[in-house]
Every structure is written in structure tokens, then in C-alpha cells.
Write a structure and sequence with these properties.
There is one protein chain. The chain is α/β, with parallel strands linked by helices. It is built from 9 helices and 8 strands. It has an 8-stranded mixed β-barrel with strand order 1-2-3-4-5-6-7-8, surrounded by 4 helices. α6 links the parallel β6 and β7.
Amino acid sequence: MAGSGVGGSRGALWIGGGFRSRRYPVTWRHNRGHHNIEHDFVAGLIDYGHTLGSRTLLGFVPFDFDGINQYAVQHPRLKAFGANGKYLESQGIHCWGYALNPALAESRRLVAEYVKELYDDFYPNADGLLIESSDLKLGSGPGNHHALEFELVREISADYSAGHPDGEVVVYPHYFRTDLGRTSWYDDRWRLVFTSHSTELDDWLIGRAAYTFYADYSMMTGDPARFGGRAGWSPAAGSTATCRRWSSSPTPRSAARWASRR
């Protein structure tokens, strides 16, 4: 995600599975050939951005996607359940694995330690965190997975802010959606990011947030006209539109079909 506002440009780097974690090497073993695994360059990249007036946020999904999703491959007991009570299927971006069950203390401890290593040991020069809510299909069996995830978000946010008082913390608004019966406590220091694929704009939350970002996928999906309409979005002072894009490895099924066609 990239955007401007609040005193300069912003970039968010999702590098789960892309840094050489010493505590959890299983999170990057699939990625041995990645340049940042071989020669860590992200810290220097962040410093270079500072010379250009750009700030970098470290993005991650608490219980899912690259890096984190490799742990449940080795420890299936930690796999998350869907709303139907069955284990979720594998998913990922550049590696395929399984979401962790947020109802388990071991899952929460693993994520907290992995992320702390990211922002304290590897990239303390980063300017903040962007904590992306887990996919809407994530479940945990009994209980409310958004509430369970939110408790971890609060824990990580408090720990990060204690050691990085000038750092930004950007969170998703799912936890505060009163229309869905979610009334989690909101820290006025947090900034919110709404997305075109999962979060409807909410005027009340926008007015409450320290700052608001809107992440749009139109440039990535090849619809610049639609993005042009969104780019002028400015429902309140202290808001800005952003562009988000990524690359992705093929799914196991699509890779098999591609190999068979060859």
C-alpha cells in the first residue's frame, strides 16, 4: 500500500516469510532464495526512504498468510477452523499454508513473538505497523474470532508503542463495526485503513480515527477509471486514498493445471 498525507508519503511492506527470523526459521525456509533472506536489504531501504521524506510501515496479518502460515504445516493442531467447524483450506500469497487458530494461547504467543522480532530486532527503524485483519472466513470454532484477534492487536500495539513512541499503528476497522455487533474499545491514537474489498466506509469511525487511509485495488486489477473516481475521495480532513498491489504465487491447483498444459 502506498499513499500520501500526514506529512509525507507512506509505504507498507508485508514481509512475513521474507525476513530471516531467528526464533521461527520455519517461517522463511520455503523462501531461502529471497534476496532479503540472503542479504537483508529492507533496513537500508527504510533508511533510504527517510532521505526522500517517505515513511515505511511493517504490514502483517496476525494469524495468517506468508511466514505465519508455515507453522501450522508442521503443527496441524494449531490450524484454524471455519464457520462450518472444519479446518480451513490452505492459502497464502507466496507460500501456501494454514491460518492459525486465534483461540489457542500457543498461536497468540507465536504471533506476538514473531512480530516483535520483526519490529524490534530486524527493523526498529521502521515508522510504524499496519495490522491487517485476518480474512473474513477465518474462524476459531467456538467464540468470536474478531474479538480474539483484537486482544492480540491491543497487546502488540501497546508493546510496540512503548518502545516506539513516535511510531504509527494502523489497524483495520472490523473490530469496531457496531452494525455487526462489534463494540471493541478504540484507542484514539490508532489510524484506520478501509479497503475496497472488505470494509465499507463508516463516517463515525472516520471522524473518530487519528487518520484514515482508503486502500483501493483498481490499479492492480486493471480498472484505472474506477480508481480515478476513488482517488478524489476525501470524506473528512485527515484522510487520503492509497494504491495497493502485490504479486502472488499460483495456487497448488492452478500450478498443477499449468504444469499439465505444458
